[in-house]
């Protein structure tokens, strides 16, 4: 029996099993078993490999962030990519015109952002069909995913693509669950929680641990609404949490009333890549979702340089990160920094150290020892 068949068998058994106190331990085991089988699909063992990016998929990274275009064939990804970046990506009405990853760069608010046009995926991609595995492997490394959908059938395609990405360990528009998991040598399974357990119980947890052959561990749940799937994700430890925008393309083919309905889909931006409609909103939404921090340099005795910002990622935007992004020696030579802007306590500037966290459009002067 193939791995895909085993997965189907377990999914069927889970669908037939009614959840109650008597079956929760068994369901926990099934969920853990399912996760292990999916892991085999992501990184199959054996000399042939298949888990890596593959020829034409390994792309040199440029810019401060990368955005991957994911979608079914012929939804307009290549047209959008070509017009956004000026990079040529094969365009045709037929399916599977793009066969490898095509990189390009677009500058937004002074920040170079890499755009990756990935080949169209097909249903069953996470099971290894088509080039789905390579496509989704590249998507795992992106800072933001554009899921490009045909406006005439958005919800059906959206559900299928989300399922393919989920099956490959990509969690869209989610944050890692607040679960602390630690293995230990003895003492059994210790479960603590600071919130009521509504979607999982201790039998579920023990069943999952049993399937992973974990007999001694500490599990602390600190977030309401945690599910068995969340616990499996934490134990597996190979999940990636990536923001996604749903790009609803070809709005030139629908009415205004239909367009109003599309705006109700969360995290969506209706556009027309062919007619170049609503692209400004798409670029602004991309910038907002990437959550980048621009920092301007100010040499001694001169005005700040607003033409070439140093662009940092939120969460890695301390003065030390700022120094390292210019040159790794600057942080060692720094005596103090003066910061003007949103992160400064004073309008006239604030003297700070390496651990000071910078905000978007701050101005920084570095004073050396």
Automatic annotation (TrEMBL):
NCBIfam families: small_GTP. SUPFAM superfamilies: P-loop containing nucleoside triphosphate hydrolases, TGS-like. Residues 65-291 form the OBG-type G domain. GO terms for biological process: positive regulation of cellular response to amino acid starvation. The keyword GTP-binding applies. This is P-loop containing nucleoside triphosphate hydrolase protein. PROSITE patterns: G_OBG, GTP1_OBG, TGS. Residues 291-368 form the TGS domain. The keyword GTP-binding applies. Keywords: GTP-binding, Hydrolase, Nucleotide-binding. InterPro entries: Beta-grasp_dom_sf, DRG, G_OBG, GTP-bd, GTP-binding_2, GTP1-OBG_CS, P-loop_NTPase, Small_GTP-bd. One of its GO terms (molecular function) is GTP binding. It comes from the Eukaryota.
């Amino acid at each position: 029996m193939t791995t895909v068949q085993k997965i189907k068998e377990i999914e069927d058994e889970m669908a037939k099993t009614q959840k109650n106190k008597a079956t929760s331990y068994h369901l926990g085991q099934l969920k853990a078993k399912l996760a292990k089988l999916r892991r085999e699909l992501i990184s199959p063992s054996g000399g042939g490999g298949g888990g890596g990016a593959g020829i034409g998929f390994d792309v040199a990274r440029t810019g401060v962030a990368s955005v991957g275009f994911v979608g079914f064939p012929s939804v307009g990804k290549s047209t959008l990519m070509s017009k956004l970046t000026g990079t040529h990506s094969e365009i045709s009405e037929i399916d599977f015109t793009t066969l490898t990853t095509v990189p390009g760069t677009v500058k937004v608010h002074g920040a170079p952002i890499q755009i990756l046009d990935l080949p169209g995926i097909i249903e069953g991609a996470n099971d290894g069909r088509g080039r789905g595995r390579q496509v989704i492997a590249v998507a795992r490394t992106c800072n933001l995913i554009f899921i490009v959908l045909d406006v005439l059938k958005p919800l059906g395609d959206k559900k299928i693509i989300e399922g393919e990405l989920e099956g490959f360990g990509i969690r869209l528009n989610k944050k890692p669950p607040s679960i602390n998991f630690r293995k230990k040598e003895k003492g059994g399974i210790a479960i603590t929680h600071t919130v009521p357990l509504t979607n999982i119980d201790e039998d579920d947890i023990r069943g999952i641990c049993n399937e992973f052959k974990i007999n001694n561990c500490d599990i602390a749940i600190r977030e309401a609404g945690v599910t068995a799937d969340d616990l499996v994700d934490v134990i597996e430890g190979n999940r990636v949490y990536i923001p996604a925008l749903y790009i609803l393309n070809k709005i030139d083919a629908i009415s205004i009333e239909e367009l109003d309905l599309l705006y109700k889909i969360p995290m969506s931006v209706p556009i027309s890549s062919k007619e170049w409609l609503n692209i400004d909103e798409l670029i602004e939404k991309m910038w907002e979702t990437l959550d980048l921090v621009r920092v301007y340099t100010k040499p001694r005795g001169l005005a700040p340089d607003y033409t070439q910002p140093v662009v940092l990622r939120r969460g890695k935007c301390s003065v030390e990160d700022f120094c390292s992004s210019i040159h790794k020696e600057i942080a060692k030579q720094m005596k103090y920094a003066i910061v003007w802007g949103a992160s400064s306590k004073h309008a006239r500037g604030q003297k700070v150290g390496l651990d000071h966290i910078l905000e978007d459009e701050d101005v920084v002067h570095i004073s050396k020892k």
